[in-house]
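Hi, here's the filled form for the chain we discussed.

Project: internal
Contact: R.S.
Residues: 144
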Amino acid sequence: MSGNNSTDKLAEEFKKVKANIRKLKETGFFKEGIAIINEISKVSFDFDIHVAKNTPEEDLMVLLEDHRQLNYFQLNILAELLMLEGEIYYEMKNYEDSKICHEVALRIFMHIDERDENPYSIDIMDRMTKNMEMLQRIKTEMNK
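And the returned structure, exactly as it came back:
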């Protein structure tokens, strides 16, 4: 039971962090937002978030689960961080990096959904939908 409480507490703390990163994005402090995301990745997962973005799709989940041994909760946080970073790059009009972030986040969420004991989790489906919508917006911007 205490494991659930600590996970719930971490989830609440992460919500606050996400809100702060979004405030930075909305006020134009893009580099600061990305720096916080990278710092969280290094502290929480002991690796640079760019490793996940530069890993071939077929090797991504092997890297994250087998080599890095990230659990379901950590994978979820990593995918959320990638979404946030992708949103910041989108605001910066850096569509290529935004696309990469959203593609990797989508791949992680799809993997979580495949492994989820409660299939069709509304939260995971919502995040996958948001990533797909962002990827469509990015594609539209890149084709202008």
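Let me know if anything looks off before we file it.
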